[in-house]
Amino acid sequence: MNARTLPFLATLGVFILLYAACAIQYPSMLSSRVIGNLLTDNAFLGVLAVGMTFVILSGGIDLSVGAVMGFTTVALAVMIEGAGLHPLASFTIVLVGGAAFGCGVGVAIHWLKAPPFIVTLTAMFLARGAALLLSTDSIPVRHEFYQTLSGLSLSLPGSGRLGLIAMVMLLAFVLGGVLLHFTRAGLRVYALGGNARFAGLMGIDTARTTILVYGVSSTMAALAGIIFSLYTRSGYALTGVGVELDAIAAVVIGGTLLSGGVGGMAGSLIGVLIQGLILTWITFDGSLSSWWTKIAIGMLLFIFIGLQRLILQFSAPTGRTG
């Protein structure tokens, strides 16, 4: 068995066993309605995980995605309800703005030689502060186009439905997977995360790759903001506080090494579904607090980081020179 695929296979095994245990206790967990709701309720987290997969594969971290998501929701509400812009125009503005913001973060990380943790922490404060500057109140979005989009769904066998935002999330994973696994840009991301110095010596444009990675991450954060805005039909500056940690956890549980260079998009999707499945099980149980989700995720994260450490230790070269 390839050690690089072991974390993903472990994640897949955990998901299958967890779902089987839930289905045995609550057979209705197998219904298409629950599956559709599982995908719809976690759509914004899934989109964040797509961008975070690029970042962690490159060996970086992005703490600003939750703040960018929150800024997006309140910016949309202000533009649509305050300025009277059409939602489609507002969506375009926030996506372009998110991409530009992420590229700026990538430029700062590469050219200032600053750690991603510090730069994205600074970006997080900037985005959150800007969101609070726009409004400290929750702003409802009553535009009829929102109602139309929220009502779009695809019927599943049984009584389930797959909402528009769930379909957007799945499309984001497919496109992200194609970009990551079947293009030269994706190979450069893996090379940058494997060893940035060697990647530069091999002629890979590390500056452009870093800017691409953080540009994708912030664009996905803006898209997650659009999804959350459609989900709640409102904008609030404090939306997404701490959600960046959930996205990081989903990617790591999905088998992507925190040191970069190893992982994939399919694992991140399963990591998101594991988090959603635990919350769904707690909802079915009815007697447990939702905070048990955090405890379960913390335990899984600890296990998978330990597994990654073992893989790195056993895959490290042991031969002596000379």
From TrEMBL:
Q: Which InterPro entries match?
A: ABC_transp_permease
* An example Gene Ontology CC term for this record: plasma membrane
Keywords linked to the UniProt accession:
Cell membrane, Membrane, Plasmid, Transmembrane, Transmembrane helix
A Gene Ontology molecular function term for this protein is: transmembrane transporter activity
**Per UniProt, what is the membrane topology?**
Multi-pass membrane protein
| Source species, domain of life | Bacteria
Q: What positions belong to coiled-coil segments? A: none
Any stretches that span the bilayer, and where are they?
Answer: 47-76, 88-111, 117-141, 162-182, 211-231, 238-258, 291-312
Subcellular localization, as worded in the UniProt entry: Cell membrane
Q: What PANTHER family does the record tag this protein with?
A: ABC TRANSPORTER PERMEASE PROTEIN YPHD-RELATED-RELATED (PTHR32196), INNER MEMBRANE ABC TRANSPORTER PERMEASE PROTEIN YJFF (PTHR32196:SF63)
Q: Could you identify this protein by its name?
A: Sugar ABC transporter permease YjfF
* Organism encoding this protein: Niveispirillum cyanobacteriorum
